[in-house]
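Entry:
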Amino acid sequence: MRAGVLRLLTPVLVAKSSAQAGAKAGVAGRRSGGSHAGTAKTSSPVRTERLVDGSKAEIYDLGSQRYRAKIISRGSVVATLETKGQEADAGLDANDMFVVLTMGGEIHSWMGGGHQGPGTFKLAGGWTAKVTKVGELRYRAQIIGHDGSVDATLETKQHDVGLDANGVYIVLSASGVISAHG
């Protein structure tokens, strides 16, 4: 997906916190959830990367272009992101630290730059996002390219979502905040 039209991507996010095990996915420390069925190819991560806030991400290869990243802060897993194969990157708004896990297993994080939807916002890389509220914890962002066409659509469906838009990383949170970095 380095050139051409972006595809609709709907990732899966699972966030965990020891204080709230059992609730649905969302922002680390505010909402939490259980883990997905399935096991990683290996029981150890393929690599570990430092995130912008100093936490670390352990990245696991699940096979078939599926990856899982466990975000660890102070020795505890605070969130888990998981891609869904060839059609889905994953994203997270973790209290103003934004994280995207790509379907290629790359992880990118940045702080700030969030815009509260609904509204239309200019994003990094020349993209424009038109964010609309479509229900409780449900926001939709149309990602509009230079020529004015809608090149991708993100929809939260009660969990944060992310996208690699040709090297510009975009997160839309379930609370309607959109941020991009690239």
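The chain has one domain: 12-181.
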